[in-house]
Amino acid sequence: MSGNTFGTLFTLTSFGESHGPALGAVVDGCPPGLALSEADLQGDLDRRKPGQSRYTTQRREGDQVRILSGVFEGKTTGTPIGLLIENTDQRSKDYSNIKDLYRPAHADYVYDRKYGFRDYRGGGRSSARETAMRVAAGGIAKKYLREHLGVEIRGYLSQLGDIELPMKDLSAVNENPFFSADPDKVPELEAYMQALIKEGNSVGARVSVIASGVPVGLGEPIFDRLDAELAHALMSINAVKGVEIGDGFAVVAQKGTEHRDEMTPEGFLSNHAGGILGGISTGQDIIAHLALKPTSSLRIPGRSINRQGDAVTVETKGRHDPCVGIRATPIAEAMMALVLMDHLLRHRGQNGTS
Amino acid sequence: MSGNTFGTLFTLTSFGESHGPALGAVVDGCPPGLALSEADLQGDLDRRKPGQSRYTTQRREGDQVRILSGVFEGKTTGTPIGLLIENTDQRSKDYSNIKDLYRPAHADYVYDRKYGFRDYRGGGRSSARETAMRVAAGGIAKKYLREHLGVEIRGYLSQLGDIELPMKDLSAVNENPFFSADPDKVPELEAYMQALIKEGNSVGARVSVIASGVPVGLGEPIFDRLDAELAHALMSINAVKGVEIGDGFAVVAQKGTEHRDEMTPEGFLSNHAGGILGGISTGQDIIAHLALKPTSSLRIPGRSINRQGDAVTVETKGRHDPCVGIRATPIAEAMMALVLMDHLLRHRGQNGTS
Amino acid sequence: MSGNTFGTLFTLTSFGESHGPALGAVVDGCPPGLALSEADLQGDLDRRKPGQSRYTTQRREGDQVRILSGVFEGKTTGTPIGLLIENTDQRSKDYSNIKDLYRPAHADYVYDRKYGFRDYRGGGRSSARETAMRVAAGGIAKKYLREHLGVEIRGYLSQLGDIELPMKDLSAVNENPFFSADPDKVPELEAYMQALIKEGNSVGARVSVIASGVPVGLGEPIFDRLDAELAHALMSINAVKGVEIGDGFAVVAQKGTEHRDEMTPEGFLSNHAGGILGGISTGQDIIAHLALKPTSSLRIPGRSINRQGDAVTVETKGRHDPCVGIRATPIAEAMMALVLMDHLLRHRGQNGTS
Amino acid sequence: MSGNTFGTLFTLTSFGESHGPALGAVVDGCPPGLALSEADLQGDLDRRKPGQSRYTTQRREGDQVRILSGVFEGKTTGTPIGLLIENTDQRSKDYSNIKDLYRPAHADYVYDRKYGFRDYRGGGRSSARETAMRVAAGGIAKKYLREHLGVEIRGYLSQLGDIELPMKDLSAVNENPFFSADPDKVPELEAYMQALIKEGNSVGARVSVIASGVPVGLGEPIFDRLDAELAHALMSINAVKGVEIGDGFAVVAQKGTEHRDEMTPEGFLSNHAGGILGGISTGQDIIAHLALKPTSSLRIPGRSINRQGDAVTVETKGRHDPCVGIRATPIAEAMMALVLMDHLLRHRGQNGTS
């Protein structure tokens, strides 16, 4: 593969640039018989969509997904599912001034060096806009996992800057613009974000995702361990710089007696492992965390160079999220769903059971 | 793939159990003309090999690798390279008592549940013994990268328990049994480990890996980003629970102005990104960190169940590393080498240049 | 993969049903910098398009392809190329009568048995309509191969029923509705086809494809030999039941002295091998032949069963090609182009040269 | 992949040269619980082994296979199965005289041009010696298919030179050195072969393979159709120049009414399709035919060039099969078994049933 296909049996192949005519995807390998319509996917697309609050970019992207194939009389047929989102808000003029500049912390420089030139409109393929297709594709996997196995995948913002956001109530996540599972922290987050926007700066974030109801046995050691594939999937999201499973980096300072999850006939006594041992799901909740860097587009000027190698100053005027991590919650859920779905099918294939 | 092949153009396929007759691997896609002999691979195998100090397991594994194909008159031919290590120290009797037990934090339970039964001798396929083949295969990639591109890949132990080990001097790494790049900390580490062994406990660790000399342009967005593939590769190592690129989880609390690596005509002014932007190498050092959980085999008894679901107490008598993270340093280097090598070939393929 | 992606470095992923809203494809791995527009692809699409003569189906399919991504300012960017063809002529009513029938020699029965139900409109995914996307994608590969390597890929109809059509003049192929390289045979073909249409029957055909200018060295033994991948690609075309390279089945009765292509300092003295030895291109013309079965949809009634297992008689009323082999010529060219392109990139990747 | 791995869920990765120390393979994805020992694989290896009669090469290859992993207490564990055959009869001196020559119809020229140099001992990797590993791996698939699904895969020589060998009695195939299913033709074959050996020439052959008991539904359209994957697998065997499914090239001259396999409530009335429609198995016998070119190594001198481009005469003195097609029968069976096994697992994976 050349990098735009993910998965082995349940695959997502994606295309599209930020300011091209459309984004699209092919989801291949979906089992036949799943009831599916655009409405099933639109909910998560709307959660990811910008412009939902004053704390995310004010770009208006309709993000209306169309299913072009693979569904007949309301059910999946087992053939590939084509998905399309037309780009409706393409203000190319916002970006013409950066045509020859390399914005700091963006992919401008490396795309130019790798490919010889680049689609500079809104970051082209390197824009997080492509994650809309991940969310749509993940919605198919989520629906299958929920309806056929009772698996639920839920994400939340677990830290923004230095504000920690403990998981108090997952039902609150969709009730606030920050995907916070601690509704009491919302005022603090609002104050923080308003100051940040005023300052013209941005900040990092931590997102957590939990899958419950996952059966024992998913994951294919040694290289396609479930945790390794999750790390691949989550690290492939724009701006992610770190991935943890279970206790993650906290294990460095743990003793063996502290870390090991003991078992009794009633089940595990703890879940430091995050639901995965030896690369295979244990039946406990699967828990992953990801670290997202601060948005790279800032109103505060930064030093860089242009294509000719001259020193320049870059200052972003466009509409940007002050914290890209906020909208990453549904994306992380989608990527976890894709990994679990693919591994469910692989496990079935080799072991003949679901 | 069913999980035991890694890579797209430069691939490693691995087989072998801890106490089976042999471990083996096939390295496919190595460019022709690389001078290669067993001696080139043995050095890293010896670094990983147990029994090198009193702080690692006292099992004696010869770990002598044989090259069975793909090399003719001292040079690689472009055909697949077969590698074999015979297992010489197979004390199966050490393990018979755990045949029906699920050792806490081990893969015993999930292997039994996934496959219906398991090779219980020393963990079978789930043993870290298989990483010997990763080190051997990674040695081929390392040699090619060094000789053809000047890339150097160096790892070190950056934390053991709560002892932080800053990178002071990479040349010291192979001069102490801990792979510490801070030789002054060695006495503190020795004291810590002796206490740990006495206690019968284990501890986690953090390993860091740096690749210098990597050209700009490696990585295939959007799913096969270089960082995503590194995360996959590193998380697939036994006991790893977290992976970071560059500043990793520290980005959560960073502001955009703090994180972004500004550029001047002379180059980047910092490397918070860890050498990767938009999933593509920037030409700076590539920096990754991994968190390894404490060894699961402990002399201190733990609660668990047996295959019949009865409560049991598990106490490990065998020879085990009190900190598996120590020997992970050459393994992490090998996995980074495999990823870089594969992406070098993929980049050449699509872009027609090296 | 789940079957709808082809290739390793240069990949085609396809979706779409005969009577769904659209067909689409993602071409991933195209090198950057290739000048590309819809007009470059439309020519071959029009060659394949039905309704071009009275000897092919009278369905009117506009087959206007749109490029949705991967091209910027007229050149490929190295990112995936999204292609879309809207279906404009969807007469679903033609097909409602076959909803519960299994048409003989069609895929109706196996799709129902494999997936539990099927999109019965015009064969759904099993319709040859999907080959439009292969032709569009192959057009990209053809253009790259022509402009960067001087490779030309040309197909022709080499037999229709028992009328053999020797390769006399490749420039005549696009001048007659049969893709015959022997223009003198056209009247005989016309008479044959008119009788066939009157009879309500169909007939098989043989198509030949030649690639000239292919460099020495493409093909990856042992499983991804160039001939093996060509066989895969060509056999995947609807209705194909046989594939030959070079002398094909004639080699069975050949002696070694007769078959072997001797060499002199001026080059090969013959090309029985069809340009491939040991799975690797020799630099000679690559020659492949494929056998296509007669169209399965006939006006002459045939015995079959319905979904309930009852005996039924099936008679097709719709618009169908009396010989599907005729329109297969551009499809076969496209598949050969995809294979050569993929292997060019793979060879470059491993060997560092083009 | 770089060409030495075959399959998606059930994979074979192979290594080894004709005169290297050993051949080996990794079979990944075998379901757990299959009873397996070396003896299960040795039977087919002995059928393929040279030196079994005066009509095949007199090289003595022990071809004793060892299972190095993936089997515990007599049953497969679900982990990769390592296979090894040590090369015991390596008479390198036979080949030193061809070091700088390109033998006509061999892969010498293309390997040198592709890789820059080659292992010239007995053809190195391009030797048919590697097919021993395919036979061993195919034996695992055969056993699973037989025991779990009742699938039987049987091959026979269906033509040698111009002697057609109809399928009269499959039980006779292993009772004569030609794999002929028509025992009455054996004296004619013996006379033909003796004359051929005396002449110093070689001849082509046609091999047929039948799989009975295959369930409906295997095959993943559109690119991974069962017939397309079979074509890939069979064309990847050394010396194969053509592959047919069912009636193969005979369909070119067939009318639709003649070709279509009509159905009644009792089943299909014929099997022109060879058990595959729309790329999916129909439940009928799967029938494939392959054409193998005459052995390239001849005692009769032939014109060629050396590495320096000078004209030379090549005459082979070594031990060679006068008809490589004869020993191809077990290899073709093995490749069909690998394809069916892989598609069984893929079908199970996507459709959740076996």
From TrEMBL, chains A, B, C, D:
<feature type="binding site">
    <location>
        <position position="54"/>
    </location>
    <ligand>
        <name>NADP(+)</name>
    </ligand>
</feature>
<keyword id="KW-0285">Flavoprotein</keyword>
<dbReference type="InterPro" id="IPR000453">
    <property type="entry name" value="Chorismate_synth"/>
</dbReference>
<feature type="binding site">
    <location>
        <begin position="293"/>
        <end position="297"/>
    </location>
    <ligand>
        <name>FMN</name>
    </ligand>
</feature>
<feature type="binding site">
    <location>
        <begin position="238"/>
        <end position="239"/>
    </location>
    <ligand>
        <name>FMN</name>
    </ligand>
</feature>
<keyword id="KW-0288">FMN</keyword>
<feature type="binding site">
    <location>
        <begin position="125"/>
        <end position="127"/>
    </location>
    <ligand>
        <name>FMN</name>
    </ligand>
</feature>
<dbReference type="Pfam" id="PF01264">
    <property type="entry name" value="Chorismate_synt"/>
</dbReference>
<dbReference type="GO" id="GO:0008652">
    <property type="term" value="P:amino acid biosynthetic process"/>
</dbReference>
<comment type="function">
    <text>This reaction introduces a second double bond into the aromatic ring system.</text>
</comment>
<comment type="similarity">
    <text>Belongs to the chorismate synthase family.</text>
</comment>
<feature type="binding site">
    <location>
        <position position="319"/>
    </location>
    <ligand>
        <name>FMN</name>
    </ligand>
</feature>
<comment type="pathway">
    <text>Metabolic intermediate biosynthesis; chorismate biosynthesis; chorismate from D-erythrose 4-phosphate and phosphoenolpyruvate: step 7/7.</text>
</comment>
<dbReference type="GO" id="GO:0010181">
    <property type="term" value="F:FMN binding"/>
</dbReference>
<protein>
    <recommendedName>
        <fullName>Chorismate synthase</fullName>
        <ecNumber>4.2.3.5</ecNumber>
    </recommendedName>
</protein>
<feature type="binding site">
    <location>
        <position position="278"/>
    </location>
    <ligand>
        <name>FMN</name>
    </ligand>
</feature>
<keyword id="KW-0028">Amino-acid biosynthesis</keyword>
<keyword id="KW-0274">FAD</keyword>
<dbReference type="GO" id="GO:0009423">
    <property type="term" value="P:chorismate biosynthetic process"/>
</dbReference>
<dbReference type="GO" id="GO:0009073">
    <property type="term" value="P:aromatic amino acid family biosynthetic process"/>
</dbReference>
<feature type="binding site">
    <location>
        <position position="48"/>
    </location>
    <ligand>
        <name>NADP(+)</name>
    </ligand>
</feature>
<keyword id="KW-0057">Aromatic amino acid biosynthesis</keyword>
<comment type="subunit">
    <text>Homotetramer.</text>
</comment>
<dbReference type="GO" id="GO:0004107">
    <property type="term" value="F:chorismate synthase activity"/>
</dbReference>
<keyword id="KW-0456">Lyase</keyword>
<keyword id="KW-0521">NADP</keyword>
<dbReference type="GO" id="GO:0005829">
    <property type="term" value="C:cytosol"/>
</dbReference>
<dbReference type="InterPro" id="IPR035904">
    <property type="entry name" value="Chorismate_synth_AroC_sf"/>
</dbReference>
<dbReference type="InterPro" id="IPR020541">
    <property type="entry name" value="Chorismate_synthase_CS"/>
</dbReference>
